[in-house]
Amino acid sequence: MKAVLHYRASPGFRASLAALADELAIVVVDEDSPDFGREIADAEVLLHVLKPVTRDMIAGAPQLRLIQKIGVGVNTIDLDAAREHGVAVANMPGTNSQAVAELALGLMISVLRRIPALDALTKEAAQWAPEPALLDTMGEIGGRAVGFLGFGEVPRRIAPAVAALGGRVLFHDPAAKDQTIGQPVDLDTLFAESDILSLHVPLTDGTREIVDAGRLAAMRPGAIVINTARGELIDEAALFAALANGRLRGAGLDVFAAEPVRPDNVLLTLPQVVATPHLAWLTPETLARSMAVARENCRRIAAGEALLYRVA
User: Fold this and answer.
1) Do 189 and 109 fall into the same domain?
2) Which of 177-186, 226-235, 265-274 shows the lowest mean pLDDT across its residues?
3) What's 71's DSSP letter?
4) Could you tell me which of 154, 156, 172 has the C-alpha nearest to residue 73?
């Protein structure tokens, strides 16, 4: 069975894929490579990461049987086209939860303690002592309310760490049941009381730009926004305004509305923004867990068995 991984894979990832050669023929094609059309034409499986899977891509792969998302969100896949062409779609919830949780917590601390600014100053020999005003922009998780919009696997891993550091955990998620850590609140309360707001919901019509100018204005002065979910959850112009005018303390952003993020995105000009390139999920450990699921689903589709985590 031939599978195409549409991703700029690292040397270590390529080596792990080569070890599967006896079970699965995996061709790695960089996202911007012109070779993709040729390689997908006779493939039965597409291993999809971030490059959108369009109707034309699916139409150009007549033997395609499975689009396996490496991750959770399937908003980058044309699900209607997949259904029309009889192509199954599956994701892999939970495989990247640990990695995303750790980066989200890291972004909270990086923004609060101004780690990127201090790193740059420390590496300049003449700048050992930071400007006193910089110290006034720092803070601790302890004593702050950390609010989670969505309370699935990722925030449930972060919440105990926040509590251990002395933070108060709030969350808004009508589907969350029987939580032992954290206080469930309504959406308005979440925005009004969170000193740190961390986003963990999928992108839908109901969540698109859920963090807008009105909700940002309702947040506490000096609050922080963390986003490791989807960039379109935030009205970026409104976030820029709230940061630029000093109402918000900072933001930690792994995702942006347009990706790859444009170099002229004004959020990148703000020193109180810590940015990473949509890699919260990406660790060697995540990839090992992901490929175990992908390998099993390839076996299942060849055997005509029910797929793990089928979404379409």
Assistant:
1) yes
2) 177-186
3) S
4) 154
Per the domain annotation, does 237 fall within a domain?
A: yes
Residues 6+ apart with CB under 8 A from 204: none
DSSP code for 269:
G
Helices 97-113 and 153-164, packing angle to 10 deg = 40
Say if residue 145 is in the same domain as residue 203: yes
Q: Would you state the structure tokens that stand for residue 266, as one six-digit string?
A: 């004004």
Task: Provide the annotated active-site residues.
Answer: 230, 259, 278
Same-domain status, 53 and 194 = no
Burial 9-24 (b: 16+ CB within 10 A, else e): beeebeeebeeeeeeb
> Residue holding tokens 């950390």?
146
Does the predicted TM-score (pTM) go above 0.90? yes
Same domain, 128 and 268: yes
| Total count of domains within the chain | 2
In a domain, 309, yes or no: no
Residues 73-121 have pLDDT tens digits of 899 999 999 999 999 999 999 999 999 999 999 999 999 999 999 998 8
What are the start-end ranges of the E strands in the chain?
A: 2-6, 25-29, 45-48, 66-69, 88-90, 145-149, 168-172, 183-184, 196-199, 223-227, 248-253, 273-275
Confidence of residue 209 (pLDDT cuts 50, 70, 90): very high
